[in-house]
Amino acid sequence: MSRKLFISDIHLSARQGDTQDLFLRFLRERAAGADELYILGDLFDAWIGDGDSTPPIPQIRDALRQMGDRGCKLFIQHGNRDFLLGRLFARQTGARLIDEEHCIDLNGRKALLMHGDLLCTDDIDYQKARRLLRNPVFVFAVSLLPIEFRARIAAYFRKGSAKAVAQKPKEIMDANPDTVVQYLRKHQAGILIHGHTHRPEAQEILLDAHQVRRFVLGDWRGDHATFLVADNEGLRLERFT
User: 72: closest CA among 63, 83, 82, 81?
Assistant: First the structure.
């Protein structure tokens, strides 16, 4: 089996230089020998369009491109913070953009890859906002605005999101167990891998008399990160510092 790595929620921005350093070191040290790297959303803390070239975007773009040049296949899934990331960035990095519900084979079992926000159905306000922000009309309208104005809009939404999260009960921001089962059944998957909740764990679920596995990826904190490895030894969460 090829060696696959799964990460999410890096939340890169100009404000988080330590996280950028950690991520670049991860690409050099841990991802160097990987055959495939899956980034399951929120690579960036905000993405205002492929025309943006403010730091750390050029550095990250070049580092990812170098991964591809070394033979590692790169796959990127949209998150709730960088869902406007488009084809230009994918071409520049050599990455393939994958759907928000994407299935692959892992050791002969179907694995469902998601960012994870679709699983948090108890957070009704967020799900309503998600539908609005992902509306093609809204996305097209935003694409017509100057980059500088889009940056101000992103900052406004980021501030509002932080305030809303601080006021919400933690339980509603986690994945709903029934929704997890719903998506596993929908895709007839034996493995679910996702991020978004920032609560890394490996879970066994009994579903229709079969054991299925759920892996939750961690966010990147500047000095550490939790990611998933899939290789000949199996699947396991590991920590990078």
Answer: 63
Burial class (CB in 10 A: 0-12, 13-18, 19+), 187: middle
Q: What is the CATH number of domain 4-240?
A: 3.60.21.10
Reduce the secondary structure of the chain to three states and give it as a string. Answer: CCCEEEECCCCECCCCHHHHHHHHHHHHHCCCCCCEEEEECCCECCCCCCCCCCCCHHHHHHHHHHHHHCCCEEEEECCCCCCCCCHHHHHHHCCEEECCCEEEEECCEEEEEECCHHHCCCCHHHHHHHHHHCCHHHHHHHHCCCHHHHHHHHHHHHHHHHHHHHHCCHHHHCCCHHHHHHHHHHHCCCEEEECCCCCCEEEEEEECCEEEEEEECCCCCCCCEEEEEEECCEEEEEEEC
Domain parsing of the chain, residue ranges = 4-240
Q: pTM for the whole thing? A: 0.96
pLDDT for 21-45, tens place per residue? 999 999 999 999 999 999 999 999 9
Distance, first Cα to last Cα, the chain: 26
pLDDT in tens, 130-161: 999 999 999 999 889 999 999 898 888 888 88
Are 57 and 19 contacting, i.e. CB atoms less than 8 angstroms apart?
A: no
What are the structure tokens assigned to 15, written together?
A: 């404000």
Task: Please give the pLDDT value at position 162.
Answer: 80
